[in-house]
Each structure stands twice: as C-alpha cells, then as structure tokens.
Amino acid sequence: MPDFLTAEDIETLAKPQLLAEPQMRADVLVIGAGPTGLACAIETQRIGLKVIILDKGCLVNSLFHYPAGMVFFTTPELLEIGEIPFTTANQKPTREEALEYYRKVAEHYHLDVRQYEWVKTVVGEDGNFIITATDRAGRPHDYHARKVIVSTGYYDLANQLGIPGEDLPKVSHYYGESHPYYDTDVLVIGGKNSAAIAALDLWRHGARVTLVYRGSQLHHHVKYWIKPDLENRIKNGDIEAHFNSYVQEIGVDHVVVKTPRGTVRLKNDFVLALIGYHPDYDFLRSMGIELSENQCRPVCDPVSLESNVHGIYVAGVIVAGSRTNEIFIENGRFHGKQIAEDLKLKLRP
C-alpha cells in the first residue's frame, strides 16, 4: 500500500460521507421546532422518511416566550397540525393551551425533537448534507441528512432602534408579564399589536405608561377589539401617547423623545422596544440561499418551497422575508404538505 494519497483519495476524503451513527443520520433534517417545523416533520414522516428536528431552544420556543396569559387572535382549529384536533373551552386559545397542544402532537407522532441544539453550519450537497449543531455545553454534534428543511421563524431576532442607550439593562425587545413594572414609568415603543397589548396590560396592572410611535396613529393591523380600548385610554389621559415621534436617546433614568411639538425629556424606569423581529438572514445566506434585494425573501420554488440550493427547503414565516405579517401559523402550517409532496417524488423511503 502506498504511503501517499492519490488525487482520487483526496477527493473521496474531501466529500462528506453519510457514515454517521444511525441516531445522527436522517432522510430529512428540520431546523426549527415551531408549529411549522413540526408540521413539516409530520408530513415527511407520513411518506415513510426518517426525520430529525433540531431547535436551539425548547419545543415551540417562540410560543414559550410569548407573554404569560396571552390569548391568540385566531381560533384553535387554525392552529392545528397533523390533523390533531385542538380542543379548548374558549373561543380563542391561550398560550398555555397552545404549548400543551403542541407537546401532545409531538408525543402522538413520536417526533424526534432534539431540543437545545443550535445549528451553526449546513454544508454539503443535495443528498449528502452535514449539519453541525452545538448543545448547551458548547459541544458540537454532526448530523447527516439527504434533505434539509429550514423553519427557523423570526422571533429570536428583534429589530434594533440603533440609538444611544439601547444596550442598557432596563431596555427589552420582549414583553413577558406586567408584575415587574408595577408602580414604574414604562415607555413602550411601537404601534402594532405587541405594543398595544403591552401598553394596556401594563396600565391595568399599575404601571405609568407612555407610548411612542413613528406613525400618525395606531397601526391598522391592531386587532379590532384592542384598538378602540387603547385609543380610549389615550383619550382619557390614562396612557400618554406621542405619535409621529421617535426616541432619540435612552438614559439611566430618562428618555429623550423627538415629537412634532419639539424634543421632550421623560422620566423613565423601563423601555419596551416592541418594534418587530426579523429572520436570521445571515444564517440563510451561510447555506447559499439567495435573498431578494428589497424584502430579503429566500429564492425558492413557490410550490415545492425548495430554495435555490438544491435539497434545502424553506418553510414558515422566513418565506416572507421582512414581510413577517404575511405568514403566520395559520398558513405556514401547510408548508409541510407542499414540501412532502416534492420529497415524495425525489426520495425513496
């Protein structure tokens, strides 16, 4: 045997090989264990393929981080996946009910969900991908898959204000519950549903609330039963509001707001910058997925949802790019069926 490597040997070693242990190998690997990712896994399993789901957080991690006691805007049947009924005594389900429902769905279908494994890289080619993830201890794990479905959502990456003081501990881009803000001065930035709900909830639980929004009035997307409630609170002076305004600076005990009437300095204890979220564009690009110039939509087949990288599919809200108000659980849950139809043609169980 020669003690050197031939060109053929080097090429063979350089090409990823599906030689991993069985528990690290799948026909399809789904990145993201949200409702859409679970739906993709269910539909893919149904056609006889082995599926592994990876998520850097817990099962339906984004829903878990929604405000405690939150009520969904939609009805339970529009949140259903895998043809499993979502039963509730309420017209609209709560966050707690949704978490239980998706746990039960995962159990029913025996989904192989690997929680708290953060996917860092996806390399290889169609039919032979290597996916590297790290666990909570920072240890790397290499998975091998023939196809990859990316359903990573957008809730983990908040839009930034880009102003001085945004990195102060008192600033958050998420709202959990009202209790920590009792008897404090809270500035809520934003004029859509998240900001409107937070402002009302804070006021009802004893916070002194000021709302700042760059628009001339609350956004028209604010739900019809929330909008008049908040408008009445503003009209009555219960909640102070500054429209056509924006925050210039955040200080330790104050904020500076530019308003049509001039710049004002407000006493402040906490800032909730609820101005939206966006998909992880850098992660998508790292896999070679092209994004549209204006809205950062992944280039993909509109029917199969296969991206420009053969073998990598996109699903859920990331399909809409920056237009995150176009895709929700209600319509993203059907992406699994679209992808499974294509996989059925291209992969044999």
Overall description:
The protein is of the alpha/beta class and 349 residues long. It folds into two domains: 7-157 and 277-346, 3-Layer(bba) Sandwich (FAD/NAD(P)-binding domain), CATH 3.50.50.60; 171-273, FAD/NAD(P)-binding domain, CATH 3.50.50. The protein is built from nine helices and 15 strands. The strands form three sheets. Strands 1, 2, 3, 4, 5, 6 and 15 form a seven-stranded mixed β-sheet that branches. A five-stranded parallel β-sheet has the order 7-14-8-9-10, with helices on one face. It has a three-stranded antiparallel β-sheet with strand order 11-12-13, with no helix packed on it. α2 (35-46) packs parallel to α9 (335-346) and α5 (193-204) crosses α6. The radius of gyration is 23 Å and the shape is elongated. The mean pLDDT is 93.
